[in-house]
Amino acid sequence: MPELPEVETTKNGIAPHILNQTIESIEIRQPKLRWPIPEDVSAKLPGQVIREVARRGKYIGVQTDSGTLIIHLGMSGSLYFVAPETPPMFHDHVDIHFVGLNKVLRYTDPRRFGAMLWQEGDWHAHELISHLGPEPLTDVFNVDYLYEKAKGRKQAIKQFIMDSKIVVGVGNIYANEALFMAGIRPTRAAGNISKARLAVFVECIKTVLTAAIEQGGTTLKDFVSGEGKPGYFKQELKVYGRADQPCAICKAPLKEIRQGQRSTVFCTVCQK
Q1: Which DSSP string do the residues of 211-224 spell out, in sequence order?
Q2: pLDDT number for residue 227
């Protein structure tokens, strides 16, 4: 599943090409994504100028004067540019055409778990976005905030930090990596971790996500950035996908368990 760095990479890849461009038309070949694409998308976007391309959590907001096209990549979605004459394949569901721009923004989604939604006014007020926690790379996400949220919580720290109401964008891969970097066992209760260790954890989350964004994303083998380039797959990962392999620090074999039906890999020696 594309996580925050992949979505940020996609946003950064498409934004320079479409900012201040006028939408000519939208071609919707398959409206049945996770939710049906609302008619407002094809009715209200043509003729609009794109004023900003932003990200909130895993959502991309393509903002115009009349409203915002909210895009979620789901489990297998990608946005990238193709030449106008490029014929669509079976999973190419939406094309966005621009006035005078010799390229088309294409949305591809084999599993159709992504979404294209419409919001007039402040797109952060959309029901899928308004409840989200702070962005992990902002100053709002700090040790004081996390310590208060973790107080008295018996939930395992990995599942706690993956809750988008606590903080957005710390998905499974990066939760594994940040916990390893911080030396915290994924099964430890969130409320039983000292403020000092949470301070380290916060910095590790920021470090891991920043590195992944700079690298261009690490997840799906079929992830494609906004410029049509594949993501760099697993090159820097220390624990995720490395069950039974030696720990990068102590060489003990890494252990894999399931938490909330997701893979968790950690070192039983280095992570306490």
Answers
A1: HHHHHT----TT-B
A2: 54
Q: What is the pLDDT of residues 113-131, one digit of tens each?
A: 999 999 999 999 999 999 9
153 is in an annotated binding site: yes
Tokens describing residue 242: 């490395």
Instruction: Clarify whether 58 is annotated catalytic.
Output: yes
The string of DSSP codes covering 138-149 is STTSSHHHHHHH
Whole-angstrom CA distances from 179 to 57, 79, 203, 239 are 20, 30, 11, 10
Is 258 known as a binding-site position?
A: no
Long-range contacts of 147-153 (CB under 8 A, 24+ apart): 147/195, 147/198, 150/190, 150/191, 150/193, 150/198, 151/191, 152/191, 153/189, 153/190, 153/191
Q: Where are the alpha helices (DSSP H) in 33-82?
A: 39-44
Q: Is the pTM of this model over 0.70?
A: yes
Q: For residue 54, what pLDDT is reported?
A: 98
Which listed residue (58, 106, 185, 242) is catalytic?
A: 58
Cβ neighbours around 131 below 10 Å, total: 8
148 carries an active-site annotation: no
pLDDT of residue 47: 98
Active-site position among 112, 206, 229, 262: 262
Closest CA to 176 of 205, 153, 154: 205
Ranges of residues in the chain whose predicted pLDDT is under 70:
217-235
- Residue keyed to tokens 């939760």: 175
